[in-house]
Design a protein that fits this description.
The chain is built from 13 helices and 24 strands. By secondary structure, it is of the alpha/beta class. Bound molecules: S-adenosyl-L-homocysteine, iron/sulfur cluster and FE3-S4 cluster.
Length: 521
Amino acid sequence: MKKETKDYSKYFDFSDAKVIREEDGKTTLRLNGRHIQIQSAPDYKDEKKRGKEEIRIHYDNAIPEDMRDFGRDKFYYIMTYGCQMNEHDTEVMRGLFEEMGYAATEDRKQADVILLNTCAIRENAEDKVFGELGHLKTLKQEKPGLILGVCGCMSQEAAVVNRLMSKHPHVDLVFGTHNIHRLPHLLRDVVFSREMVIEVWSKEGDIIENLPKKRDGMRAWVNIMYGCDKFCTYCIVPYTRGKERSRLPEDVIAEVRDLARRGFKEITLLGQNVNAYGKDFADRQYRFADLMEDIRSIDIPRVRFTTSHPRDFDDHLIEVLAKGGNLVEAIHLPFQSGSTEVLKRMSRKYTREQFLELVRKIREAIPNAVLTSDIIVGFPGETEEQFEETLSIVRETRISMAYTFIYSPREGTPAAAMEDNVPMSVKQERLSRLNALIAEMSLKSNQQLVGETVEVLVEGQSKNNPNVLSGRTRSNKLIHFEGPKDWVGHFMQVRITKPMTWYLNAEAVEPPQLAALSHGA
Ligand code: SAH
Ligand code: SF4
Ligand code: F3S
């Protein structure tokens, strides 16, 4: 069947672009001497849509037979920006590359394919990527056969795709967050056509199961859901990641069981808002708390999750988390602002009082819980009093650590159109005051641990001193202590000797029982 050709004129509003081919749904144009093949391009209008369209799950994603040798004697290199979601997408792409016969390299000069897996959350994240593309231009000139690709959240933005097409002709491939599984096909298109290939889907997204994943170490990410329907007014994620859709519990559980069998020590369940898990199931009542209850009985030592939205954090979940076991006492709970007025303009859909009440309930049920958060300062119109409400909520809730950000306007989001009368110097000053408070809170929470014996999972050797090992407690605190390399990958007990602001020094109480625990990941 012949595919219809879409009108992409809004993506090439540059006068010197010429359409040279329109066939099979693809448009090829010439711009600055480069042929650009658009298979599909992002569209904000489509990205905003949240229709009733059924989410399809695809299980059959085998790499085509003729692609299985495509990367023989070739190397790939992926640079990953942004959140854990992107880190995990990179693991999927690594899996795909390796199934095509490519090998990983850490040396970009050796690479035959370089991918930038990008983040669009704040302007400085985007600036970094464009800066990197500038550096890679020289490499591409030295090695014209190099394939340079841009994927991830920035690719979902029409303005970015437009800029890549007009200003970065040395980019060969642009694809988005919904079509990662198409990587082998797209690479083939680039190699055979030698055109810049663009394929970005804006549709709400399906779920693609059974993709290969190349994981390292003893800790694994596990997606439980994709997308976000919250549409906080400052945030670009609902546009770049599509609508909320949950993987079926049986698929998640099968993956976790498999990781347990392979000896992984820790998993982190991933979603932009894991508390919304299961809301989209038409045929069953099964939510995040039910999933956690089921995962509790799987023999994997530590289970984390990120990120949770305060709004959907229900009593059932608190009750399940309070049972402990492999469900650890670390809860990352972004609250963004302590002012009800600002929260309203952010469209977070909870008040300061509701957040305080949630924290009270969590602390009552899980007294040793370590809470961390994300906070934005300088949201449009934020007053000094409103900012001080953020400072006071940090104290009241005894947050141990927080990622703090200056608000960054994102094109196409409602907040970007709000009047902003807070000067940048004021925003910066608020950020430093907040950071000073967070440092104080972090040190205070670490000081409470002095003399205590805690379990750590030993994650690696310190870069500066090979005699020093580092690990994490159940509550996700970073611990440094002396010990030999062969303790890495094991659980052990350490006693906290000296609390620092962002980590704790400790000493081994008893070495791990290496023989009993020596199944590696
Ligand atoms: N889904 C997660 C957040 C993902 S983005 C959640 O809701 O918790 C990670 C953090 O980036 C957010 O929590 C927020 O603090 C920050 N952030 C998002 N958009 C931003 C923007 N436009 N400017 C500054 N910070 C932003
Ligand atoms: Fe962004 Fe809000 Fe969704 Fe988090 S919940 S990803 S901040 S829209
Ligand atoms: Fe960035 Fe996309 Fe994650 S915008 S924070 S990489 S979901």
